[in-house]
Amino acid sequence: MKVKDGIIGLIVGDALGVPVEFSSKTERDDDPVSDMREYGTYNQPRGTWSDDSSMTLATMTSIANKKEVDYKDIMDEFINWYLDSKYTNSASGLFDIGNTTGNALRRYLNGAEALDSGCSAEFDNGNGSLMRILPLAYIKDIDYETIENVSGLTHAHKRSQITCVLYIEIAKSMLENEDLTIEEHINLACDKIKEYYKDSEELKHFKKIFNNDFSDVSGRTYVVGSLECVLHCLLNSENYMDAVLDAVNFGGDTDTNAAICGGLAGIYYGYDSIPIDWINQINKIDEVLSLCEKYEAVCDES
Ligand SMILES: [Mg+2]
Fold first, then answer.
1. Residues 223-266: tens digit of each pLDDT
2. Which one, out of 35, 162, 186, 263, has a CA that is 20 to 30 A from the CA of 204?
3. How far is the CA of 147 from the centre of ligand 1 (A)?
4. Ligand 1 mean position to 200 CA, how many Å?
């Protein structure tokens, strides 16, 4: 099964980063994370995931139930998470939500259509849609418009949408061509993006990624900066564990960057490369694994 490679990779990365979210790079240099921790930033027990995983699971559940990408139904599942803490594995329910995501969900609750709920100002380019977009990589023949729209449910600025498309292209390349290096996957995906968006003003913001220039990355929440950090971690490690720990130890948006990194690292290195001890510490892991199976069955049918 391939779905669990990426999805468990993402969730484990999220859980590794949760206890140290918002810590500085200096703090992480002095006290690097090397194992699953507990408490910290949100005072959560070991193995607790956050919004990144919750919104990913909500997306998978909707697509598995509907057997298609139904924007309104995905938004309804996001609302089930937002209002009722569905898709959380913490006793205290929802404890982490981004500003842009919160604003979009409130617009939807106030009557906006799903595709009109997302926020599209330039400052709405946090990594809040990139962190939950991975399930789309498993859908055969997924088109760019659908990826843009799923991002746009919360993050509707073109830059966030292009970043999601690029991320899905990297993931798809890893799923489809197992013999290539990480750098080759990234370059192939970049070539597709450069061609498809060649007339977009936004493309200039991806120059560093296109040029493999990761000289000044940090643990940012800015969507392009976040992907730069993740790609740097993937390119400078040789296994799942080192890649996600690198992402956490940049500090800043540790859970989200490790989740985004963990999704790709899980696909590239495979489920068996994720330390089983970490997987076993994730509360409700059995529910996640059965959702992965259900989701994969639906993707195989499509
Ligand atoms: Mg989070």
1. 999 999 999 999 999 999 999 999 999 999 999 999 999 999 99
2. 263
3. 21
4. 30
